[in-house]
Amino acid sequence: MNRRNFLRGTAILTCGLLPGTPPVSATQVQAFSLSAEPGQAQLVPEEYPATDVWGYNGLVPGPELRTRQGETLHVTVRNRLPEETTVHWHGIRLPNAMDGVPHVTQPPIAPGSAFTYEFPLPDAGTFWYHPHMNSIEQVGRGMYGALIVEEPDPPTVDRELVWILDDWRLDMDARIVEGFDNRHDLSHGGRIGNAVTINGEFPDIFRTRSGERIRLRLINAANSRIFALEFPSHEPQVIAIDGHPVPPHPADSGVVTLAPSMRMDLILDMTGSPGQKFPVVDRYYRQSAYRLIDLAYEEAPLRANLPDHGIQLPANPLPEPDPESAIIRTVELEGGAMGAMDGATLNGKWQDIRALVRQGKFWAINGTVSDGHVLDPLQHLKPGQSMVLDMRNNTAWPHVMHLHGHAFRVLARNGEPTRFREWQDSVLVERHETVQIAFVADSPGDWMFHCHMLGHQMSGMMSLIRIKA
């Protein structure tokens, strides 16, 4: 937190609201300024040099933007990078023109230019912001930050923390390794780094006290790494996924799993004894499990007994999809190493897999490979229609599918109904898994739908859904 430059201000203006948005007065506007620019960060221990990065206001992560549900966000972004950029407000239900997709919702922000984003915030929760221009490299160099929208009446805790998880591929001099278009990475599990950070710093010890209650907001900003965190001798309660409340419950099998772009809010009750230390371990890649950080208890407890305050969050005002009347569309995720794809359509022309590989294209959605953001729609919808997407991962690799501008219900996995029908905007679809989601097309425009393993997006796994009367 001490490395962040938290910029906060107010302005007075009015703005139209999405359906279901809580009313907002003309004075409830939060104004921020961001500059996309080079900087340096001490990503690894201090015996190594600082790393040249790209960041917002030169920081990794960028400034935490903190607002309240129902307010309007006003952000002026200036580009001081050597290339074009945009900002995507990940997970926010917002007007299409503010979504930050180059050549689809806005022209790219040229070097030396600026763009102002302004939109209401209908939902409380943990969100984040990042580029959607050359995102595999720009996000990979550190361009992201947290966007926290507070509930009107949040649960009572002793501390609230935001942990932005990321990994980096560094050389022995702590320089970022080039080759973001490495074809092995693109066609396999993506660019996995050799150094992991929390909030842009090398994690070591997190100090706490017995009896403390913590709200921990987790954000996975990594290019491709999936985190599966174990908290030995603790039982974190999941209270929100991708910003949206769920009934409080322990993580499945005691493991908090976060694919790239996903968020999870936890209530972490510190049940250890004074002086104890517990490692938080990431075990998603079983052959490469490692200690992320230690929970270290101070000698003096905070209190003898844990708080008994309620931790259920109030629901966000999301439109409920109707699966009975919904348009149903099968989505086939195809391609990649060890896949069975023999070819696909690129720029309107079917090409065999050898021709696609020569162009750095490895992945397809329903037989179509993306080449940039301007695409023929996967589906046309009218405003207010319900949609069910039946996603089938026919590949040897996991994918995390993200829909812009909407939240969806996760209805089923492998034909089995989900326990909580969670609201999410990004969902992990494991190897050879099927996942069924449903949403209401409540905001007109062209909305991106893609894998948020950014190498998979770059090399073909991206489409869009058009909502138009």
> What's the shape?
globular
Q: What is the CATH class designation of the largest domain?
A: Mainly Beta
What multimeric state do the chains show?
A: single chain
Mean pLDDT: 93
Uncertain stretches of 5 or more adjacent residues: 1-27
Rg on CA atoms, Å: 21 Å
Helical region count?
4
Number of domains: 3
Taking the sheet with the most strands, its summary is: 7 strands, mixed
Helix content range of the residues, please? under 10%
List how many beta strands DSSP finds. Answer: 35
Structural class comes to mainly beta
The CATH topology name of the largest domain reads Immunoglobulin-like
Distance from first to last alpha carbon: 45 Å
- The CATH superfamily of the largest domain bears the name Cupredoxins -  blue copper proteins
Reported CATH architecture of the largest domain: Sandwich
Strand percentage: 35-45%
Commentary on this structure:
The structure is a single chain. It is built from four helices and 35 strands. By secondary structure, the chain is mainly beta. It is globular and about 70 Å long.
Give a short overview:
The protein is 4% helix and 42% strand. By secondary structure, it is mainly β. β19 (277-282) and β20 form a beta hairpin.
Give the secondary structure arrangement, pairings included:
Layout (H helix, E strand, L loop, with lengths): L8 E3 L17 E13 L9 E6 L8 E4 L3 E8 L8 E3 L23 E7 L4 E6 L4 H4 L6 E6 L8 E10 L14 H5 L7 E4 L6 E4 L4 E8 L6 E4 L6 E5 L2 E7 L4 E4 L4 E7 L7 E6 L7 E8 L29 E9 L7 E4 L2 E4 H6 L4 E3 L2 E2 L9 E3 L4 E8 L5 E5 L4 E6 L2 E2 L5 E2 L1 E4 L4 E7 L4 E7 L2 H5 L3 E6 L2
Parallel strand pairs: 2-5, 4-9, 10-13, 12-20, 21-27, 22-25, 26-35
Antiparallel strand pairs: 1-2, 2-3, 5-7, 6-8, 8-9, 10-11, 13-18, 14-17, 14-19, 15-16, 15-18, 19-20, 21-24, 22-23, 27-33, 28-32, 28-34, 29-30, 29-31, 29-33, 34-35
